[in-house]
Amino acid sequence: MTDQASKTKLWGGRFTGATDPVMHRFNESLSYDKRMWAQDIRGSQAYARALIGCGILTEKEAEEIVAGLDRVGNEWREGTFKIEADDEDIHTANERRLKELIGPVAGKLHTGRSRNDQVATDMRMWLLDEIDALEKLLSVLIETMAKRAEVEIDHIFPGYTHLQRAQPIRWAHFLLSHAAYLATDLDRLRALRPRVSVLPLGAGPLAGNPFAGLDREALAKALGFDSVGPNSMHSVSDRDFVIETLMWTSLLGTHLSKLAEDLIIYSSSEFGFVQLSDAYSTGSSIMPQKKNPDSLELLRGKSGRLFGNLAGFMMSVKGIPSTYNKDLQEDKEPLFDSVDTTTACLQIATGVVSTMSINGERMRAALTPDMLATDLADYLVRKGIPFRETHHISGSAVKLSEERGCQLSDLSLEDLRSLNPAFEEDVMRVWDPSESVERRNAIGGTSRRAVLEQVTRLHALVNAGVHSA
Ligand code: ARG
Questions:
Q1: Which domains does the chain have, with CATH numbers?
Q2: What is the value of pTM for the model shown?
Q3: pLDDT tens, residue by residue, 421-454
Q4: Which of 20, 117, 220, 333 is deepest in the core (most CB within 10 A)?
């Protein structure tokens, strides 16, 4: 940095030496925090107006600053903002430009304020907008799954445990099992919002704002915050809102990775229950027959990146001393990346789920009578025999069919009666998978009614959001 340049640094007063250019690059955050330019402008405009209340600015001066900031904002919007070599972050860049545009009165704006309370304010404002956008995207995905479940409610296919065929379920029930995870994600996102919506501005560098008449409640209202930070030291250092968001994206990422994995398996030739649309698949550069589920593999893979952002930033904040330390600048890149990644993941997941097709025949063909062995045991339970006994009897039936090399449902009434006399003619209804799913009619089950009830609940959940689509 030249001597002249050292004078232009906003904190340059006591510094005479030059900054190592590598240090400048190491220290700067403008290259990525410039995406908060609009929040920085809005925050400064509100702060300028608040300074009227403490007699620091006249109405006229505040209006000059507000209008000047509008011009700075327009430059960002139009892509004409010229970044100078010494600009360190979005806060110093905007203030430097304001001074160039309106002169020395710009120098009054930062009275009582610090970049410490300013950066936390900008980030919270930025994140609140993103949370609203994420809430909409997540709501659309949940709605897409709920609608699909409703339309495809008649399809029955195997439900798995340990990836082994277990019991017949409705395809809709499977879809809604994933939607149920996403519903809790929606709940969590809504619960997180008020904790993000806490105003740091007015905390100063750490000890609070010294100018009488600064109305932080009014400032919060003007900027759309729900509440005011209760402790200035906490306000400038608290990044729990970032961590909680990273946790949220990590958990959502985990849920999407599980959905992706199921659909990858179900789209393989071995299963063939679903087929991805061309829009979300890719071909192989060498094997012409292949249709790869890259969209789903990426969804599955991104979960690692999301958790990595959380783990990395948690390490950065661990054990730092009170209030602001530059370690905290490490909050932005993981936050931006995780929000961007999650935004993309939600859009892709919605695209895949809304455009894939299902193969009802393959689903039906995968249902085998042995999956109804529990239903056979339950049949005898209804005749008054304890389940531990009926489980054993049904097991003997499975063994008998294996010995005979036939399906469980091929055993005759006599065969079954040889195992227990309580079997009667109506036992043959056990072999109907539709009856099996319909019997599971308690709340949360796979019967038609129980599934449609889940659909209704999901619609209600989505519609309950103030910020939802
Ligand atoms: N660029 C900084 C950040 O992102 C702004 C706060 C700087 N504060 C300071 N005291 N150096 O965290």
A1: 3-111 (1.10.275.10), 116-365 (1.20.200.10), 369-463 (1.10.40.30)
A2: 0.94
A3: 999 999 999 999 999 999 999 999 999 999 999 9
A4: 117
